[in-house]
C-alpha cells in the first residue's frame, strides 16, 4: 500500500501560505507539490469547507488562509482532507469462519483502535504554528543561501 502524503503536503502548503503575502494559485501549489492543479483544488476544497482557507477566482485570485495557524491543529487538517487511513495494516478476511483468523483479527482491531485513538489525540494537540516555529528555528540556524524548498 502506498503512503498517503496528503496530510503532510497540506500542512506544508498551509505553512507556506502563512509565510507569503499574496494568495497562492492552484497552479503555484501544484508546482510546489509536483501534482496537478485539479488535485490541489479538490484537496483544498475540504479546507475551504471547514473555514481554514478561502479561494477567489480570476486575476489576482487564489487561495488564502482565513484563520491563523495557531487556530488550526493537525487533526483539523486531517479531518478536512477526508480522514485518510492512518495505518496500512489491518485484519484479513480470507477465511472468515476460521477461529484463528477471528482471534488474530480481534487482537489487531483492538491494538489498531488504541493506536488510532492515541494518534488522533496527538494530532489534536499540535497546532500549525508550532510546526512553523520549528521551521523558523531551523531556518534561522541556517543561512538563507543554504535553504532549499521549492515554493
TrEMBL record:
Listed SUPFAM superfamilies: Winged helix' DNA-binding domain
Q: Which InterPro entries match?
A: Tscrpt_reg_Rrf2 (IPR000944), WH-like_DNA-bd_sf (IPR036388), WH_DNA-bd_sf (IPR036390)
Q: Which Gene3D superfamilies does the UniProt entry name for this protein? A: Winged helix-like DNA-binding domain superfamily/Winged helix DNA-binding domain (1.10.10.10)
Signal peptide start and end residues: none
Q: What is this protein called?
A: Rrf2 family transcriptional regulator
What is the phylogenetic placement of the source species in the record?
Answer: Bacteria, Pseudomonadati, Pseudomonadota, Alphaproteobacteria, Hyphomicrobiales
Amino acid at each position: 500500500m502506498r503512503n498517503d502524503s496528503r496530510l503532510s503536503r497540506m500542512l506544508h502548503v498551509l505553512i507556506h501560505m502563512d509565510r507569503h503575502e499574496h494568495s497562492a494559485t492552484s497552479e503555484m501549489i501544484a508546482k510546489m507539490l509536483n501534482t496537478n492543479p485539479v488535485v490541489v483544488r479538490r484537496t483544498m476544497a475540504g479546507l475551504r469547507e471547514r473555514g481554514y482557507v478561502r479561494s477567489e477566482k480570476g486575476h489576482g485570485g487564489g487561495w488564502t488562509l482565513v484563520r491563523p495557524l495557531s487556530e488550526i491543529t493537525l487533526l483539523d487538517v486531517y479531518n478536512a482532507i477526508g480522514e485518510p487511513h492512518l495505518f496500512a495494516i489491518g485484519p484479513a478476511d480470507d477465511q472468515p469462519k476460521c477461529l484463528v483468523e477471528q482471534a488474530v483479527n480481534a487482537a489487531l482491531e483492538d491494538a489498531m483502535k488504541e493506536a488510532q485513538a492515541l494518534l488522533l489525540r496527538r494530532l489534536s494537540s499540535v497546532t500549525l504554528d508550532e510546526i512553523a516555529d520549528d521551521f523558523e528555528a531551523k531556518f534561522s540556524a541556517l543561512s538563507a543561501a543554504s535553504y532549499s524548498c521549492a515554493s
